[in-house]
Amino acid sequence: HSVNLGGRTLNYTVTAGTMPIRTDTGELEANMFYIAYTADPDPGRARPLTFSFNGGPGSSSVWLHLGALGPKRVQMNDDGSLPPAPYKLVDNPYTWLDQTDLVFIDPVGTGFSRAARPDQARKFFSVEGDIQSVGEFIRLYLTRSKRWTSPLFLAGESYGTTRAAGLSGHLIDRGIALNGIMLISTVLNFQTIRFTKGNDLPYILFLPSYTAAAWYHKKLEPGLQADLTEALRAAEKFASDEYPNALAKGDRLTGAERDAIATKLASLTGLSKSYVDSADLRIEIFAFIKELLRDRKQVVGRLDSRISGVDVDRRGTSETPDFDPSLTAIRPPYTAAFNQYVRNDLGYSSDLTYHILGGGIGQWNWGDQNGFADTSEALRQAFAKNPFMKLYIGFGYYDLATPYFAAQYTLTHMGLPEPALKNITERYYEAGHMYYVHLESLKKLKKDVDEFIRTAIPNPESDGNSGNSIGKQQPKR
Predict the structure, then answer these.
(1) Over the stretch 176-187, which tens digit does the pLDDT of each residue have?
(2) Alpha-carbon distance values, 297 to 38, 289, 311, 431 (Å)
(3) Which positions ≥6 away from 19 have C-beta within 8 Å?
(4) Which residues does residue 10 pair with via DSSP β-bridges, in sequence order?
(5) Residue 471: phi, psi to the nearest 5?
(6) Lowest-confidence range among 358-367, 368-377, 411-420?
(7) Where would I find the beta strands (DSSP E) of 282-371?
(8) What's residue 100's pLDDT?
């Protein structure tokens, strides 16, 4: 195949197939579907290799594949909203393939990947089982394609970032060191995003993203509506100081203190003071999605709060939304385009349903970490064992699924040493969870990742004594 990259042609080979996953005794446990892209060899360069996957858990790899990384992309409206059918694929001039070969992995229960027998599936539907099976896939792919000495990267989105962090520790213990990890819309510690009784962290950490959504839909007061950056700074400051102190007081909060906090919360969320007070100063994500544009009889998207839709609830009396307009904007185009592409352009024949998102996995086992999965410790250990590893983290301001402030909180509570902090690159985008569906953010992502990959691969002339000898980058917005 070939792709036009703004005046130059990149030729490449595509492989679509399945990888058998077996027990130590050779028993077949699963077949994992993948699509691999290999650019025509450059005799003067050892090409990097990137393994990519999405999240859920229960999502196929189609979103990163046909949204940002691959040589073809689903054509959306430039702002990422739903275009009219029929949907189509176009050349992606912002593909990562000019920098790295790509392998898109569908974990068991997603895409065409299936357990060998129904009774074996449960093993894969867990935090540890998922990491182990994807790790085994990577080992097998390196072996079969003879790529053990290629510069290696992982790219994950959403739960795929949870998986990537876990894999970083899993792989280094098996002799597979990564040059870099690209995390897109990150969650490593689920305590930061799970709204459960007794856990106040999400109410605090979602607040700046609520402010971004309210700003976009012009629901803030004039002083905050003037500038997004200033509005976010105000929300971050409140969420770092007054707000957590107030929630920690519980019933000891005085009437005057409660009134002041409710007033501030209302100003930062675009919600009424009476609603904030009735919610006990704690705004749950789906309540916010429903309430922000209730006066317009609309709901905003969880994946991308820029996207709004007509509320299915005609009377507007329910407390939670019936659907996510930002998900319904992307699911039909990606479903149609992928099924046509894999069966027609790539010639992969199967009557199986390709599980785009959900439908293929059973109940997920989140482990015994008080109900909150957390792979940040595996990432910390990977940094300790591989001081040369680099980390890129991308955040969408309008992401209400994995808010940027929650991911920042996790990073600042990992206990990383100074050298590791210098290996982290943070980038921000004015879009949502899948910020690459927004054309301007896709262009920025390409530029940011190209720079990151270059800094993560050692210069042959370097003495190799420093993990930061090439292209040192300080964390910045």
Answers:
(1) 999 999 999 999
(2) 48, 12, 6, 23
(3) 31, 32, 34, 137, 140, 141
(4) 3
(5) 50, 55
(6) 368-377
(7) 298-300, 308-310
(8) 97
User: The tokens of 400 are what?
Assistant: 């209400």
Beta pairing, strands 101-105 & 180-186: unpaired
How many of the other CB atoms lie within 10 Å of CB of 42? Answer: 8
HEC states along 315-334?
CCCCCCCCCCHHHHCCHHHH
C-alpha closest to that of 408 among 390, 430, 424: 424
Alpha-carbon distance of 108 to 319, in angstroms, equals 35
Q: Which residues pair with 19 in a beta bridge?
A: 32
The three-point CA angle 434-281-412 to 5° equals 50
* 325, amino acid identity: P
Residue 371 confidence (pLDDT): 72
Largest CA distance in the chain: 72
Write out pLDDT tens, residues 101-134.
Answer: 999 999 999 999 999 999 999 999 999 999 999 9
Burial of 84 (0-12, 13-18, 19+ CB in 10 A): exposed
- Compute the CA torsion angle 10, 13, 18, 21 (nearest 10 deg): -80
E strand residue ranges, 208-365: 298-300, 308-310
Residues 6+ away with beta carbon under 8 Å from 296: 308
Closest C-alpha to 303, from 232, 215, 403: 403
Segment holding 286, helix H or strand E: helix 285-291
CA distance 3 to 91: 6
CA atoms of 413 and 407, how far apart (whole Å): 10
Instruction: Name beta bridge partners: 30.
Output: 21, 115
Question: With 80 as the cut, is the pLDDT of residue 391 above it?
Answer: yes
Percentage of residues of the chain with pLDDT beyond 70: 94
- Tell me which H or E stretch contains 31: strand 28-39
83: preceding bond cis by omega (within 30 degrees): no
- Could you report how far apart the first and last alpha carbons of the chain are, in Å? 37
Single-letter amino acid code for the residue at 230: E
Which residue(s) pair with 16 in the sheet?
A: 35
Q: How many residues does the chain have?
A: 477
Mean pLDDT, rounded, of the chain: 93
Residues with Cβ within 8 Å of residue 217, at least 6 apart in sequence: 270, 292, 293, 300, 305, 308
Q: Judging by DSSP bridges, how do beta strands 390-396 and 424-429 pair with one another? A: parallel
Q: Which tens digits make up the pLDDT trace of 23-53?
A: 999 999 999 999 999 999 876 568 999 999 9
94 Cβ neighbours under 8 A, 6+ residues apart: 68, 73, 442, 443, 445, 446
